[in-house]
Fold each of these.
Amino acid sequence: MSEALSAGIDIGGTKAEVALVRGREVVAHQRFPTGGKTAEEIVGEAAATLRALLPAGAAPRAVGVGVAGRVEPGSGLVFQAPNLGWKSYPLGERLTAALRLPVSVLNDVQAATYAEGVYGAGRGASSVVALFIGTGIGSGILEGGSLLRGCSGSAGEWGHSVVDYRGALCTCGNRGCLETLAAGWGIARLAREAVTADPVAGEALLARVGGEVEHITTRAVGEAATAGDPLALGVFETAAEALGAGLASIVNALDPCRIVLGGGVMEGYPTLLKTADERMRARLAASVAVIPPLMPAELGRFSGVIGAAEWASANTP
Amino acid sequence: MSEALSAGIDIGGTKAEVALVRGREVVAHQRFPTGGKTAEEIVGEAAATLRALLPAGAAPRAVGVGVAGRVEPGSGLVFQAPNLGWKSYPLGERLTAALRLPVSVLNDVQAATYAEGVYGAGRGASSVVALFIGTGIGSGILEGGSLLRGCSGSAGEWGHSVVDYRGALCTCGNRGCLETLAAGWGIARLAREAVTADPVAGEALLARVGGEVEHITTRAVGEAATAGDPLALGVFETAAEALGAGLASIVNALDPCRIVLGGGVMEGYPTLLKTADERMRARLAASVAVIPPLMPAELGRFSGVIGAAEWASANTP
């Protein structure tokens, strides 16, 4: 754990968080909206926000940036960040120039994985996979304290591993990705399909959203399931079965010591973690001697800035 | 590449190969059968074979052993080697004692992956996944020149990633693993099911195996497909679709620079590689900027001894 102060910046499609970090502790932080701003405006605002947070005369040991996109290892070039509308944007270079400090850039979910692996639910384990289930599914892989980044910085997209090879179309153009069945949008999709197929069984869920199938959200499905609605429970049954299959694939492919699960869907409907754990264990019972525990993520919304800051610090000589 | 002579031992359920290796070159080698022998007998014979291969007075720089089982990183303890009937056998310790030389032990497919990644079809790439499709599917992961071994030494079992979560039972107890659709046994299974479901369409294939459904082998399906038999072609269509899905999952999860494909099924029916490549590319076209090339494995049956020897050499101070 680093004793010096580092800076972490977490840039997403709607907001950016800027923080001063010491180990897992957030010493100071400030957020600003990013929607509708150009890349140059976001870089300028991030640099100004960080300067305002820093005590007079102080310089951070390192500056790390997590961004919602594909980042080239080394250069900090953002190949693609769809939610920000960026393509081939030299974020590392521009922020280094704006701050006059070296900046390290990585994917935001990789940053969150680093934080959970080193300071959160994965601490002490030599290999960790983290899965964050929100609207989509993001994930990251930590092995021996190092983030696995892959050839073009995109490693860890377990949400787009295929669990149903003849299944539904995914937002990525592939078919049967884990996201189609277990991400927030996949769960809402399953519920809409089930309600359309059987409007009588769907009445209770429909009533929660004003009678419009298109208004069914993951949150509404979660609340209906918690209230015991059979259709909503069936949707989560399917999601848990698919997630259990995806988790079993992770165990067989990577043999992690621990799997960390976080994100809005997990927090909104915690039963999913328990059921997915059962399904995963049933799938692995006959072949795997030691099945890794599933651990709820611990660091919440600050995992991105903590991870970016501490990863940059660990990778700065 | 090491200039010194290293020793590689590859222990499988039917035979063991012992070799002296320099880089990717096999300088001398000898094999012996392992079937029906105890672990102690195999260790004794491997040590005697290696001593006989070594020039008088020479000692190898390192001794590496690849074994068809799950191997604890560090200790060289073999948790499980089903084809050898071993459970918790201290292979590293026993062979070190028999040879009076330090011995490094790893899984045999991990060893073959190391060889292909460093000296074979993956050389020069910073991250490589290798997939060997024979009766089963073995695989390994190489990142920045290091083998990913996982928490209990079992990383790389992509054959047991789930591509069809409600699919057929696998030999491992799980459901819908890639092996059920694309391993040799899975392809034979699909063909037997297709012939049973439609005996008229299956006549040509059945005639090749003496009329007995149970005698349908992967080789027979491959020969029938090469001869243009529609049922056999349909089976390989399904296998290629599932393999394309599995490869797309590998790309999304690990972002390798290159994927190496080897093994008997690939060699017996090379069209599978081409079709699986098309299917993988179709699944990734919209989301992945650079799709890694699929490369045929180059080192053949010696990849195990080369990989074990050179991995041990690279990990010996």
Amino acid sequence: MEKLKIGIIGAGRIGQVHAKSITYHIPQAEIAAISDIYVDGAKKVAQDLGIPAYYEDYHNVLNDPKINAVLICSSTDTHADIACKAALAGKHIFCEKPVDLTVAKIKKVIEAVDKAGVKLQIGFNRRYDHNFAQIKRLENKGEIGNLQTIKITSRDPEPPSIEYVKVSGGIFLDMTVHDFDMARFIGAEVEEVYANAAVMVDPEIGKAGDADTALISLKFKNGAIGVIDNCRKASYGYDQRLEVFGSKAQASAANDTPTNVSVIGENGNISDKPLYFFLERYMQSFTDEMAEFVDCVLNDKQIKTTVYDGLEALRLGLAAKKSVAEHRPVKLSEIEG
Amino acid sequence: MEKLKIGIIGAGRIGQVHAKSITYHIPQAEIAAISDIYVDGAKKVAQDLGIPAYYEDYHNVLNDPKINAVLICSSTDTHADIACKAALAGKHIFCEKPVDLTVAKIKKVIEAVDKAGVKLQIGFNRRYDHNFAQIKRLENKGEIGNLQTIKITSRDPEPPSIEYVKVSGGIFLDMTVHDFDMARFIGAEVEEVYANAAVMVDPEIGKAGDADTALISLKFKNGAIGVIDNCRKASYGYDQRLEVFGSKAQASAANDTPTNVSVIGENGNISDKPLYFFLERYMQSFTDEMAEFVDCVLNDKQIKTTVYDGLEALRLGLAAKKSVAEHRPVKLSEIEG
Amino acid sequence: MEKLKIGIIGAGRIGQVHAKSITYHIPQAEIAAISDIYVDGAKKVAQDLGIPAYYEDYHNVLNDPKINAVLICSSTDTHADIACKAALAGKHIFCEKPVDLTVAKIKKVIEAVDKAGVKLQIGFNRRYDHNFAQIKRLENKGEIGNLQTIKITSRDPEPPSIEYVKVSGGIFLDMTVHDFDMARFIGAEVEEVYANAAVMVDPEIGKAGDADTALISLKFKNGAIGVIDNCRKASYGYDQRLEVFGSKAQASAANDTPTNVSVIGENGNISDKPLYFFLERYMQSFTDEMAEFVDCVLNDKQIKTTVYDGLEALRLGLAAKKSVAEHRPVKLSEIEG
Amino acid sequence: MEKLKIGIIGAGRIGQVHAKSITYHIPQAEIAAISDIYVDGAKKVAQDLGIPAYYEDYHNVLNDPKINAVLICSSTDTHADIACKAALAGKHIFCEKPVDLTVAKIKKVIEAVDKAGVKLQIGFNRRYDHNFAQIKRLENKGEIGNLQTIKITSRDPEPPSIEYVKVSGGIFLDMTVHDFDMARFIGAEVEEVYANAAVMVDPEIGKAGDADTALISLKFKNGAIGVIDNCRKASYGYDQRLEVFGSKAQASAANDTPTNVSVIGENGNISDKPLYFFLERYMQSFTDEMAEFVDCVLNDKQIKTTVYDGLEALRLGLAAKKSVAEHRPVKLSEIEG
């Protein structure tokens, strides 16, 4: 079987993560080219990893007939346009989340991808996390029983810069969007959302029109209920937990820690805080999502994490925003889809 | 110092718990009499514990001038009336929760108690649980920092009988009321409630007009947010957990278990389920609340768990009911208080 | 069924523990009398618990025909003599450990008890601890498989006084004796002992001819191997753990803690130290051993924790002393038995 | 700074582990050549990882003047000879453990290395494990206080083949050797060893003259005591734990697990078994030891895990064998060194 030839568009942090995963851990694929509007970044990655071509202009990647698939790792506002062009060029697509902050543009991507008959996988990497994937497996094996309640905790170690906050689309589209996807992945389709938002970490975030602390109640279509709690800052690091309560059992995923060492002395029994940052916690999941993408393209399998998942997570974020704005529960059907 | 002379009204399960606590563990008090409309029950407890008098009619307890304080452990619908009469008789009062299912009758109790100048402690025993009390101590020492989010999980091992469900006042007044009190004890005063309710355990509960699964979002007056999740049945027993997230730390109380033994074999690492029933989990807390009551009366200290706490927990339950009925967030100020 | 009438000889700490257990938790028995050479101590306990008679001279207890059973809770050097006299008086006996520090005197007790046909239970209370008893149950159910290795950790929070050390018989007879019994209870009969002893906590203990830190290797008759590690002082409290490794599984008992609360902040995840003192850790086990004794006597059942168990634990302690003295492994058969 | 040029001798399992670590994770080094007596194995690794040269005869590696350092990953019986020749050729050396099963040959290696002035690091990778290295850091920071007791548990998931057992040197030289090194790394220099050995897993291992279960008592020169327990088979996987008990605190390293998920249902609270195999558990440690080796060579730093450590671990293994053979404690000074 020939290797999948991949082009990477965007050589920033997440582009580099994927470039290394492919180079070091996915022998079924190879990177044929990388582009970045900051071309020196693309050049450095190309040299470090032995990638044969690098460009400033991503059209060079799209126009390379050897390339079968592209990874869209550029800034969010460019995702939809590049995805449409990539589909037109017949490339399979791995697109970082969010696809876009508007329903309309995501629908254009869906249209383009459907028309071109190419595959598109969304970078909801947390679905591939060892803990959360294990809970999914337990569910699929029937060990949880009927889902009754799902609880998701997601807290960042530090808030982003105020500049970023201003263009982020707000906490629900920028941060909760991952948890909305997890609620759909582990739980079910959502019928209704009710969101509380507060400013408890940094008043500047409030001045920028956003919140830093939130709690979102969910009603699922199958009757189950759920809750997501978010905060932009936890003193102890990156807090990523999940609990599923069903008729047969309750499954929960605790945080990962740097070591399993504990020290018992006069002041108590002290063990590690959670891993501090998303790159430490989720590194393996980035490799695993990419391996699945490569496998789906090479072996013509159905993509599991689709652009539709990206659309639904966005709609849930928009519903949460509307819920806060109008101070009432909002049905997902109220949001254009 | 002379011993506190106590009369117990109601010799059922909880009356017996208090009778044993006092007899075996609280040397500062002694039980002078016990009454129950089922007089054989009162007689048996009196004989087993060496209580000198037992009655069918609780007025005999109220009319005994040697008795300084009464415990009201009769059925809920009698609490308020007995409390008013006990106040009039100049007895200090320990009253099981709920005081009543209506605001009006609780206010009559407050009036009677205030007029008589007697003390009244409510039996919110979970405040005295070793785990939750430890979190309160940590908060008071400033180790949690500013409260940002509080999460309470409370699930029963088995639903009550349908007969009981029908007269219980519903899940919010019967079950969540404890969690509302915990939210106020560990958290802060509540401004607004939004409740989701579902029937996932037993359709008969739904037919009786109640829910068996619920999730309640809370907005506190200090800006913090909270969530309570309840279920009438957990396959693994009695699930009683609490998490407080503050600016300095997150504190959480895990369940108590029968042993600390774990067995690692081919099928994984197996440790104990939570203690199955509230009498096992909370036994020490019943003794501790009673010791505090005795101490407050004997030494004329201020009661910490007051009838006002009973009133507020009821109002929160009524707000949750209204939230479900009207499908919207409900401010506590909308509920008569 | 009539209640068992018990006489208690010795009203010190452990005598009081048993007196309270019987009074409060064992309705099948009642205490008829208590004696202590410090008669005011006996008087106080009698008054507090409503015991009808107290004496300075224990012979009054032995001579009381109403009394069916005696608890020997006096100082160690008096245990054997009193036990022999109690047997002669036809009383069933619960005797605190150690029965004696010599094999010869224990054998006299065995002879006296056998001749009189009375029951004698030894106070190896740890067999009744909820954690260790659970491991025994798992073994009996076959869940551990063939025993291969057993590991016992036993560390005290503080060393005893030097005065006590001097009369204690040394760490192996005073402290390890409990662990030797546990090794036989959970493990099997021991064939050989090799002991290392060190002075690492307090040089005064060394000057008194004793050690404060020890590690004892065990060879069991069934081929399994084991290890006990002891220390007279652990900065974090009372450390009582057990691990059993078998062909099917490994079971381990962790320490009990005051609460199940953990706090995660900048400095890590802090949970409780173990319970600090043996009375906290083992309180329930004292009640449970007494309940078993009462049941065995009342219902003529076979005693499970016998004077033979006391003898074997002593012989193991003597073997460990000999091992250190002669710096070699010592077979249990080398010790008079 | 120029990259370190490395030649790898031996392309089997551990040679491949190191080859991947260097290629993917250590940019300061590159592999110039690889050899294996099974040349197709060397060829495959070379092709997969882009190594420019591969050989059947390791002398080609030693004779390549571009190569600065060699990794000796061939079979144990060839380690010492190749190490001597590599030293003569002026190559720095990373040598897999054990260097040899005899003291005499290790001393020849020490002589050769000293004479040539090259560095030699031994592959005691467990020193670089995240858990054990963390305990070392805590010790170095003084958080444990004076070392009093060290306990090491090391159990394999499955015994090796009988063919391997016969040439392995026995459990003490093949398996415990890692734990002896850990005892010296975390603990101190050892003065005396007493070993118990048993056959409890497979009688064939006994027939081959070896044991499959062992418990080794250690006396350290600083007065502390220790114990190692080993088994060739644990039903639940690879059990690698460590406990250090000091005057200030006790630190312990629990096993690593595939996930942090737990499931609570009717049958208890089930979490993961340990990682099953040494490649999963210790993968990161292989990379970290190699990174240290590269750093020491490139920057002329002192090697931390030396051939002397290999010698001492071997001597401890030989002392344990002698202890079992002569059924007595054996001083390390009795073993040629």
